[in-house]
């Protein structure tokens, strides 16, 4: 608020300074014009009037005298002096009279041809005098533009003085014209008309100029107009205009005009001196104004500097406090609030959106209140978004739980139907339906993961790695393309077994989807220093380096789930599961083309199990559903025959058991037994199924 008086003072000082500086510039420009162009034009006008008078005498006598030649030389020097004066005035000052000067130079250039016509006797006497009058008129046009004073009273008096000077010029024109007619004792019709025009213009200009002068400057002219000399001139002028003949006594006309011209020149000098004195007083007043304005301006500048420094320091302090509060809000409070909301914590909006406390001017407090409003809006928006995410997650969870319950019932029904079915074709269809249901269960668990909850499946004891991989392969639609290579014997914590199965299944399914259908997906594992690594390699097109980097960032730090980004749903589920158990998942380009997904299970989840064979884990193997074991038989073999399994000797044994000494070698049979046909294998599986079903029924009939 302190800036308003300061700005007003500075603006007022600037206005006054502009006015005074404008007056000062006008005085400087006017002084320059008067010293250069003004003096030169006055001298040239005097010389032209004198040359015109000598020319009139020559036109009367028809003789070119030395007096006329000398006067022409003085006129030429005056013309050159005017050109020099214009150059000295410079472009800034001469700009005020540029228009009249542009008309004067052509008129002065015609002076030579006018003299030549007069000397040769070409043209009329009136035409020669009129040519001089035209040049003098151009000079008066320049002289009228030399006045640059801004004082209105001085401008009015100067204009009236110029009018009186122009009237003096018309008297000189009358004198020259009559002088031509005295020699012939008559005036031509055109000369009488010109004389009448000159007389009328003279009377008009005297009346106009006298009306414009104030009392002091008018008094000398009033005394002159009342004198006998002027009255005699007026009488002669009227008689010549009426009769059209010049005075018979030429000497009386000449004497009267000489006395009148001398008195007019004297009164003009007196009036000019008075006007100059007034102009000097105005200039002094302007200088005083400049000094006062400069002093006031200096004081205003010093005051503005002092006030600005003090106000700036206070404003800087207030802005610093506001900046600190804003930085705390944007860099600490709001991020902490958003992090708490992401964790599912309850937030008190009134407590968290407390007002920003700053002190200072009204503008600073208004900005602080605006920041507080922004803060409340941001907190409410964050709380609303968190509530919306929780609501969406709850919807996912409810739908997934309901779907999961139905799927478990469906799996139980399918299991019972498989046990009671002896027809191989129907049993195959039930297996396919069982496979679809297993995949649906994984999708339901994905919804549970997206909701932020954990699936309900878990085991108390460690589960072998090979069983987890087999179970993951069994949950993939195109599981026949997956080749599981030999893995070191190990096991994972039972609490994380379900999530690990889900994670590996998502990566395997992603590999089968984004690779050609005629290629295989290889799954291998190995114990490393930091835990256990599982690699899933496909032969697809792969991704660009930028896409690999973005995907790995998402897998390392899973963001909030975006409902619009459903194309990457599987990778998002992988990232959530990996974050839950501290598992590292990374994608990279395979050396053979395609993508390799690396899953690094931390050592805390790995349990060492020596001499553990696939399928011989006892209770641990029992943790994997029987339908998973049935379908896994199709993915750990070295090859298939028309989609059915082909057994490989010791394919499921651990390396130690495979290398252990066996029974003494038997002599080779002379004939190799024939390979079973697919129908025989199917009948064998059906018989195995019926035998296990009868054993369960007998066990249930015996009772506990």
Automatic annotation (TrEMBL):
It catalyses: ATP + protein L-histidine = ADP + protein N-phospho-L-histidine. It holds the Pfam family NIT. It is an enzyme of class 2 (transferase). Residues 495-605 form the Histidine kinase/HSP90-like ATPase domain. Its EC number is 2.7.13.3. Residues 669-683 have a biased composition (Basic and acidic residues). SMART domains: HATPase_c (SM00387). This is histidine kinase.
């Amino acid at each position: 608020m302190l800036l308003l008086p300061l700005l007003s003072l500075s603006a007022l000082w600037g206005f006054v300074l502009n006015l005074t500086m404008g007056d000062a510039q006008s005085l400087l420009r006017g002084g320059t014009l008067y010293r250069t162009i003004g003096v030169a034009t006055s001298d040239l006008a005097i010389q032209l009037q004198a040359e015109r008078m000598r020319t009139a005498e020559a036109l009367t006598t028809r003789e070119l005298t030395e007096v006329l030649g000398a006067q022409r030389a003085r006129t030429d020097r005056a013309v050159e002096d005017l050109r020099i004066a214009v150059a000295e005035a410079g472009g800034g000052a001469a700009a005020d009279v540029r228009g009249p000067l542009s008309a004067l130079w052509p008129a002065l250039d015609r002076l030579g041809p006018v003299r030549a016509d007069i000397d040769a006797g070409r043209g009329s006497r009136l035409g020669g005098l009129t040519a001089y009058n035209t040049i003098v008129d151009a000079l008066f046009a320049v002289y009228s533009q030399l006045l640059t004073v801004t004082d209105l009273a001085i401008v009015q008096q100067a204009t009236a003085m110029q009018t009186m000077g122009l009237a003096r010029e018309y008297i000189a024109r009358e004198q020259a014209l009559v002088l031509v007619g005295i020699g012939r004792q008559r005036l031509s019709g055109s000369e009488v008309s010109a004389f009448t025009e000159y007389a009328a213009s003279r009377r008009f200009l005297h009346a106009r100029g006298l009306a414009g002068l104030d009392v002091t400057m008018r008094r000398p002219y009033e005394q002159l107009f009342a004198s006998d000399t002027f009255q005699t001139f007026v009488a002669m002028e009227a008689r010549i205009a009426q009769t059209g003949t010049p005075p018979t006594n030429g000497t009386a006309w000449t004497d009267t005009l000489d006395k009148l011209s001398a008195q007019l020149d004297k009164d003009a000098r007196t009036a000019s001196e008075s006007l100059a004195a007034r102009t000097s007083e105005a200039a002094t007043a302007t200088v005083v104004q400049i000094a006062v304005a400069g002093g006031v301006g200096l004081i205003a500048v010093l005051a503005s500097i002092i006030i600005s420094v003090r106000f700036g320091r206070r404003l800087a302090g207030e802005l610093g406090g506001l900046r600190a509060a804003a930085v705390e809000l944007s860099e600490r409070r709001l991020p902490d609030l958003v992090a708490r909301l992401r964790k599912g914590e309850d937030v008190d909006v009134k407590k968290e959106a407390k007002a920003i406390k700053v002190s200072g001017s009204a503008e600073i407090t208004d900005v602080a209140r605006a920041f507080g409003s922004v803060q409340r809006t941001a907190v409410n928006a964050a709380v609303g978004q968190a509530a919306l995410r929780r609501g969406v997650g709850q919807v996912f969870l409810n739908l997934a739980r309901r779907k999961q319950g139905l799927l478990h019932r469906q799996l139980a029904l399918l299991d019972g139907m498989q046990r009671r079915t002896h027809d191989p074709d129907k049993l195959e269809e039930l297996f396919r339906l069982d496979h679809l249901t297993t995949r649906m269960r994984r999708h339901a668990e994905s919804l549970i993961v997206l909701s932020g909850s954990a699936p309900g499946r878990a085991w108390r004891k460690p589960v072998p790695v090979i069983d987890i991989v087999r179970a993951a392969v069994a949950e993939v639609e195109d599981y026949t393309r997956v080749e599981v290579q030999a893995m070191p014997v190990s096991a994972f914590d039972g609490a994380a077994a379900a999530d690990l199965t889900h994670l590996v299944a998502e990566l395997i399914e992603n590999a089968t989807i984004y690779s050609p259908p005629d290629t295989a997906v290889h799954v291998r594992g190995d114990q490393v220093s930091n835990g256990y690594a599982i690699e899933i390699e496909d032969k697809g097109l792969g991704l660009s380096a930028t896409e690999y980097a973005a995907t790995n960032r998402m897998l390392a730090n899973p963001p909030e789930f975006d409902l619009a980004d459903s194309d990457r749903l599987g990778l998002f589920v992988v990232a959530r599961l990996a974050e839950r158990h501290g598992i590292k998942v990374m994608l990279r380009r395979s050396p053979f083309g395609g993508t390799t997904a690396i899953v690094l299970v931390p050592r805390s989840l790995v349990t060492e199990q020596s001499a553990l064979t696939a399928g011989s884990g006892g209770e641990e193997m029992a943790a994997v559903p029987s339908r998973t074991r049935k379908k896994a038989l199709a993915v750990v073999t070295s090859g298939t025959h028309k989609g059915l399994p082909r057994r490989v000797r010791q394919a499921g044994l651990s390396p130690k058991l495979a290398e252990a000494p066996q029974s003494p070698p038997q002599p080779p049979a002379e004939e190799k037994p024939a390979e079973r046909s697919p129908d025989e294998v199917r009948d064998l599986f059906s018989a195995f199924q019926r035998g296990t079903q009868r054993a369960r029924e007998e066990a249930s009939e015996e009772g506990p």
